[in-house]
Structures are given as C-alpha cells and as structure tokens.
Amino acid sequence: MAALQTLREWIGIQQFPPATQSKLLEILGKYKEEDVSSLTVLVMGKGGVGKSSTVNSVIGEKAAAVSTFQSEGLRPTLVSRTRSGFTLNIIDTPGLIEGGYVNDQAINIIKRFLLNMTIDVLLYVDRLDVYRVDDLDRQVVGAITDAFGKEIWKKSALVLTHAQFSPPDGLNYNHFVSKRSNALLKVIQTGAQLKKQDLQGFSIPVILVENSGRCHKNESDEMILPCGTSWIPNLFNKITEISFNGNKAIHVDKKLVEGPNPNERGKKLIPLMFAFQYLLVMKPLVRAIKSDVSRESKPAWELRDSGLASRRS
Ligand code: GDP
Ligand code: MG
Description:
Elements: E1 8-9, H1 18-33, E2 38-45, H2 51-59, E3 77-83, E4 86-92, E5 97-98, E6 101-102, H3 104-113, E7 118-119, E8 121-127, H4 135-148, E9 156-161, H5 173-191, H6 196-199, E10 206-208, E11 216-217, E12 223-224, H7 231-243, E13 250-251, H8 254-258, H9 270-295, H10 300-312
Parallel strand pairs: 1-3, 2-4, 2-8, 8-9, 9-10
Antiparallel strand pairs: 3-4, 5-6, 7-13, 11-12
The chain binds guanosine-5'-diphosphate and magnesium ion.
C-alpha cells in the first residue's frame, strides 16, 4: 500500500498564513539537521472525534474523508506529502467501536495496513468538550495497547479537538483542559497498564486542536485557541518532540501483526513459574507433611486396635 502511493508535493502548506508556514519550515529544518527524512504519524480514536478533520487541518487540504454521521468503512487512509526532501506520512484510521464494542476486525485491518511501517508518533484523538470518560474509552485504549504493545504510548500524544470551546458554569479554560486531559490520561495509564517505572518521568503530551472555521485568529491570521496558542505550529512542535524523545518507534513487523498480543509475551513464562513453584515449595511441603504423618504418635484407639489384633492372632 505504502509503496503504491506516489510521493506528492506538500502544497497544502501554502494554505497556511506566512507566520505558520515559516514556523513549519523551521521545524522541517530540525529534521534535516538530525538527518531524518520522513515521519509517520498514526491517528487513532473513537469515531466522530475529529481524526480525519485533524489530518486535513495538518496537511492543509482535504485529504481524508470527513463524515458528520458515522459510515467511515474499515480501511485506514495513508496521506503522504513531501516538502524539500522531507516526507510526512499520516495514517487516518476508522473509529474502532461498533455496537458498543471494539471491532476486532477493524483492529486487524489497521495492523495489516501498517505492516512494515514504523510508527514514529501516535495521536490519540478525543474531544475536549466532553465531560466524562467511559468504558468505550477504556476499550479503545486497551485495543491499541493489545495491538501495538504498551510502548506505543511513549510515542503518543493526547489530541483534544473542539478546543475553541467555552467551559460551562464559567469554569476557567485552562482548568477545564487540565481536568479533561487528566481524566483521559488516567484512562490511558490504566488501560495501557503503564506502571510508574514504565513511564520514568515521561508524561504524555496534550495537544489542543480546533478544526472548524470557528477557530479564532490572531493578527497574523494564525488560528489561535482560547489559551492563546497558535495550534498548528504547536501540534507540529509536539509531534517533533515526541519523535525525538529517545523512546523507540514502533516497527510493525510480521510478528506484531500475526503474533500474540505483544503484552502477553511475558505471560508465556507463567506455566514455567508454576513448575518452579511446585519444585521449590510444593515438593518439600509434601515431603514434610509425609514425614510428619509417619512420625505422629498413633492415637490410643489405633494402638488398642492393633494390640487387640495382635493378641487375637
Ligand atoms: P472522525 O470520525 O474521528 O474521523 O471525525 P471527523 O473528522 O469525520 O469529524 C466528525 C464531525 O466532527 C464532522 O462533522 C467534523 O466537521 C466535526 N469536527 C471535527 N473536528 C472538529 C473540531 O475541532 N471542532 C468542531 N467544531 N467540529 C469538528
Ligand atoms: Mg474519520
């Protein structure tokens, strides 16, 4: 699939106001400095949260199909754009939930689609303007973890769309953002079974996004959020930080696509541990009990009975 896609020039970048363009070109310069010529970003999340819209905003053209009502199909879309020797690959995926559950077929299709690719960054997308997390969030996080291994979260960012938003009851914007993101980050941490030692000072960055035309603009015509951030350059900056954060990118090989759940590998040792436990604990225990039983003084009735028996014979 990736091989069939011809490299297209990233002309969408010209849609951005000059201030944004120059920031983006500066970021591309960083990749050149580090001798990195391509970047692959995987976009995942529930349906209708704004994944495809975000892909389009980032590319600056309508590359991915946006649907107000769910009917996305199951196939991911790879969008590749090249600019001065650098290639940006973004993979838009369909929502994973169907009928209240994660659709395993959708996960498998995505895994197969990604075969032989290396995921540099995962954007986990949800909406900012929602107040609750629920079981579906946990399921989607769990499904991503099962598919790619929990290490993928060290290459991820939480993207919150609909960020041009006024919190209810006059709540402070930044306060609301941190409440909403903490709730989702907690779901990610538990759903991905990330322990403190897994994270080692690493925290998943949060990126705010507003895809609609309602987004406010600053005097340089850049889209800005209520917190004052001009979000397109900020998103590219965060993606760049993740790609250079020193954690390993996720290579999707045959083993990952066809093999067992990457988080289960350690669990193969469990039968072995049972055997060890038997040898180390159970066997001596059984031996001790047996010798205890034989050493135990015989109860009076047994002595008497055996005495009787011996007298009779
Ligand atoms: P996907 O299913 O996650 O790919 O979501 P889409 O990108 O197809 O978006 C679903 C709907 O939400 C569409 O009607 C979009 O126009 C709308 N939408 C997406 N992102 C935003 C956003 O940041 N703000 C607003 N107001 N609407 C958005
Ligand atoms: Mg979509």
